[in-house]
Specification:
single chain, Thiol Ester Dehydrase, Chain A, ten-stranded antiparallel β-sheet, globular
Length: 279
């Protein structure tokens, strides 16, 4: 059972080494292809997508299960934020450390928040991240319920950019090779056993697809100008569906929402991106 007094527990230190191959595989896993050669081909002056930052931070988030007692089968990724201090190198060894930052008792469910920092091998900080888990059956342990959700809606004006991206039917099978090998995203029997009609796309894959589009449309594919991205996972995506993302720009601050076209269903909301020179 979850306990309120577990707030502040340290997450296991995670060391990760990545190479150009990993950077390219991640970009392919979020839908980049021959129209985005600098993301997928070292001969074109390889650039690392800013949302690759979720790859070294994910093991620390997943390690919540090593320090807290909850049902992993009933757990969903609720929200993800990363803020970059500098562009991500194409090859590096990095260290991620973190803590259990919040545990909220929502009655039947619970919300867990992990905060992490990732540092490069020379000690410089690369990024900070905040990752939220929603445990559907984790509540009732007597903890505080936490702050109420703040109502959110997109700006009441036409979007400045609207981009549609059709996902590959096999995309989850490719994205899982970047670290999240949960069978829910590959095995039909596992997916149906927890109530889905077939394997679903990783929330972080949807997040990465939107980040890739924003990197191109908003930051001009310049890794020194993409500072942060934050979004709530509001719904599921089935591989093969089309994502429609609307962006509202206000200076360096951008809000966004992403829907599945075929089902007219919001899958990312409360989206915020910060564009501006790093450092």
């Amino acid at each position: 059972m979850l306990r309120a007094e577990d707030v502040g527990l340290a997450l296991p230190r995670q060391e990760m080494t990545w190479t150009e191959r990993d950077v390219i595989l991640y970009a392919l896993g979020v839908g980049a292809g021959r129209d985005h050669l600098p993301l997928v081909y070292e001969g074109a002056g390889l650039v690392t997508l800013p949302t690759f930052g979720v790859v070294p931070t994910f093991p620390a988030f997943a390690a919540l299960g090593q320090v807290l007692d909850f049902d992993h089968r009933m757990t969903l990724h609720g929200r993800q934020r990363i803020q970059l201090d500098q562009p991500i190198p194409e090859a590096e060894t990095a260290i991620t450390t973190g803590v259990v930052d919040q545990i909220w008792d929502k009655g039947k469910s619970a919300i867990l928040v992990a905060k992490t920092e990732t540092h490069l091998s020379d000690g410089r900080r690369l990024l900070v991240a905040e990752s939220t888990a929603f445990v559907r059956n984790g509540g009732g342990f007597g903890g505080e319920c936490g702050p109420s959700a703040t109502p959110w809606s997109p700006p009441d004006r036409p979007a400045d950019h609207h981009v549609e991206t059709t996902t590959s039917a096999d995309l989850a099978l490719l994205y899982r090779l970047s670290g999240d090998r949960n069978a829910l995203h590959a095995d039909p029997a596992v997916a149906t056993s927890v109530g889905f009609e077939r394997p679903i796309l990783h929330g972080l894959c949807t997040y990465g697809i939107v980040g890739r589009v924003a990197f191109d449309v908003l930051a001009g594919s310049d890794a020194t100008r993409f500072r942060s991205i934050d979004a709530r996972f509001a719904g599921i995506v089935y591989p093969g569906e089309t994502l429609a993302t609307s962006f509202w720009v206000d200076g360096d601050a951008v809000q966004f929402v992403t829907k599945v076209v075929e089902r007219d269903t919001v899958v990312l909301d409360e989206g915020r991106i910060e564009i501006g020179v790093l450092g």
